[in-house]
Design brief:
The structure holds two protein chains of two kinds. Chain A is an alpha/beta fold. Chain A has ten helices and 14 strands. Chain A has two domains: about 210 residues, P-loop containing nucleotide triphosphate hydrolases (Rossmann fold, 3-Layer(aba) Sandwich), CATH 3.40.50; about 60 residues. Chain A is elongated, with a radius of gyration of 21 Å. The chains are: A alpha/beta, B mainly alpha.
């Protein structure tokens, strides 16, 4: 069946005395757009840098593209990475940047790059630093895609872009996925944006994996219950509450429950969206939703706390 | 009407139009707000006509002077050649993206925009125009296949193969009229718009619950309630 594009086991990274990532265990199957979400300093960039082999783990292992050790030549051949803040040599004209990238890479599809840049209308004689923010991002992405990767890794790709540039950027990523079957792993703060693209979610908090799973499964296994605040505590003991918001009279409980589970009398159940789900977990760093089986050291189904 | 006004425009043409607007702005012919507005419209322009409309009241040719660009095949955004419809997304509706696509196809079938034999937009084109995950489009098309409304043809795309049980137009008009009668009564009783929607939705839900008609019907109805709320 499908291979895993990233598989980490007990992966940890320490800078000095600070753990940037602790015992991270996860497996992302091919064919997804996996979104890495978490507060600043949660370890997103560290995890991505470990995956592309720019960092070496302190402990644990990370493999990519079906068992190739991250950073090995076999792994690097199949991965393209666009780091934060659009890494281009800003003083080089676009044509020279293109030439340089072609010569620095074992595999580079010059025809693809030229066709894309033509479509994007990027002036090749202009210094890359003089291109608009959107064009710089599109240019860096085009160079990455011209390596014809099987896995595209993007660190905060749209944070600096205006809405139109953001849309165009993601459209190019999604087209590469539709046309060439590229798998995508990206980190982002823009939760609303992820709602349209991500079908796999990894939530990192303080260096640990808090939530991991297919978006569809996560949404199906959570819902919001709305009812009288006076009864909230009573149900909170019995239901697996991730996050509770309550007013004087009314309370909203985001709980782990399936669509078929009974709703307490007098309460209403609503489906939950990706943004609402991610926010709830981000606010409750103690809660966790991890796939049950095949997780190391987690024989019990994951504990959910409040 | 000059030739080519209906032609789709490329990013290069949008850029050129924006550059030209910037010149007018620099020359003091446009205020800041007007400039921002027109550049925004330039960036979302679809046809030559959209672009030339941006230069209303400004000196010059009326349309940006850009060379005719040969269009690469297959890069047409949206519905593209071959499909009569184009999808849109409402992020605020709370309805899952794939369901929005399913609903729009059903809606187009009901209103006659789509007929059996028509092609649905190609996955690549939908993805390029909406910037959504291709798996979402595939899921929507699969759902339409399960419902028997569409069928995939290998190497060609997905095509409509059935129509939704159509109510005839005179019948629709009659139903519309009786609903207007009900709305008038509700209005006279002092119900406001939200109250009417809430009452209608709850009656609809009761109706189907009593008929024991669950499944996809309920899924659709609950999605629509979300949009209203």
């Amino acid at each position: 069946m499908s291979t895993n594009v990233i598989e980490a086991s007990g992966l940890s990274k320490r800078y000095g005395s600070t753990w940037a990532l602790r015992e991270c265990t996860l497996a992302i199957a091919a064919g997804h757009v996996a979104a890495l979400v978490g507060p600043n300093g949660a370890g997103k960039t560290t995890l991505l840098n470990l995956a592309v082999g720019m960092l070496a783990p302190t402990a644990g292992t990370i493999e990519v593209l079906g068992g190739r050790p991250a950073g090995s030549p076999a792994a690097l051949d199949g991965i393209a990475f666009v780091a934060q803040d659009t890494p281009l040599y800003k003083n080089l004209p676009a044509a020279d940047m293109l030439h340089l990238t072609r010569n620095l890479n074992r595999r580079f599809d010059q025809d693809y790059a030229e066709a894309r840049l033509g479509e994007l209308g990027i002036p090749l004689n202009r210094k890359t630093g003089r291109l608009s923010g959107g064009q710089q991002a599109q240019f860096a992405l085009t160079l990455a895609l011209a390596r014809r990767p099987r896995l595209l890794v993007l660190d905060e790709p749209v944070a600096m872009l205006d809405p139109v540039a953001r849309h165009d950027f993601m459209a190019l990523v999604m087209t590469a996925m539709a046309a060439d079957g590229v798998s995508v792993v990206l980190s982002s703060h823009v939760l609303a944006e992820l709602e349209r693209v991500a079908d796999y979610l990894i939530l990192l908090s303080r260096g640990r994996v808090q939530v991991a799973g297919e978006v569809e499964d996560l949404l199906a296994s959570h819902r919001v219950l709305t009812g009288p605040a006076a009864e909230a505590d009573r149900y909170a003991e019995r239901l697996r509450v991730v996050h509770a918001r309550r007013g004087e009279a009314q309370a909203h409980l985001l709980v782990r429950a399936c669509a078929g589970d009974p709703v307490p009398p007098g309460w209403e159940a609503h489906p939950v969206g990706l943004e609402e789900l991610a926010l709830a977990y981000l606010r409750e760093s103690g809660a966790a939703a991890l796939p049950g089986p095949a997780r190391s050291r987690n024989a019990e189904p994951s504990e959910v706390t409040r | 009407m000059s030739s080519g006004q209906h032609l789709r425009v490329s990013d290069a043409e949008r850029e050129a139009a924006a550059d030209q607007l910037a010149e007018h702005f620099a020359a003091g012919l446009l205020g800041q707000a007007e400039f921002d507005d027109r550049v925004g419209r330039a960036m979302s322009a679809r046809t030559r006509a959209d672009l030339s409309g941006l230069f209303a009241g400004l000196p010059g040719t009326g349309a940006p002077a850009v060379p005719e660009l040969p269009r690469g095949g297959g890069s047409t955004p949206g519905g593209g050649p071959g499909s009569p419809i184009e999808f849109r997304l409402d992020a605020a509706s709370g309805v899952p993206t794939y369901l929005q696509l399913v609903h729009q196809v059903e809606h187009a079938l009901r209103l006659g925009y789509l007929k059996p034999g028509d092609q649905l937009p190609k996955v690549r084109d939908v993805v390029a125009s909406l910037a959504i995950n291709p798996n979402t489009v595939l899921k929507a098309y699969k759902e339409l296949e399960v419902k028997g409304l569409a069928a995939g043809r290998p190497g060609q795309g997905t095509f409509i193969q059935a129509t939704l049980s159509q109510v005839t137009l005179p019948e629709l008009a009659g139903l519309h009229k009786s609903l207007l009668g009900w709305l008038t009564t509700a209005d006279a009783a002092g119900l406001d718009e939200d109250g009417m929607v809430a009452l209608f939705t709850s009656a609809l839900r009761d109706f189907y619950k009593r008929r024991g008609d669950t499944g996809d019907r309920r899924g659709g109805a609950s999605g629509e309630t979300e949009g209203v709320a």
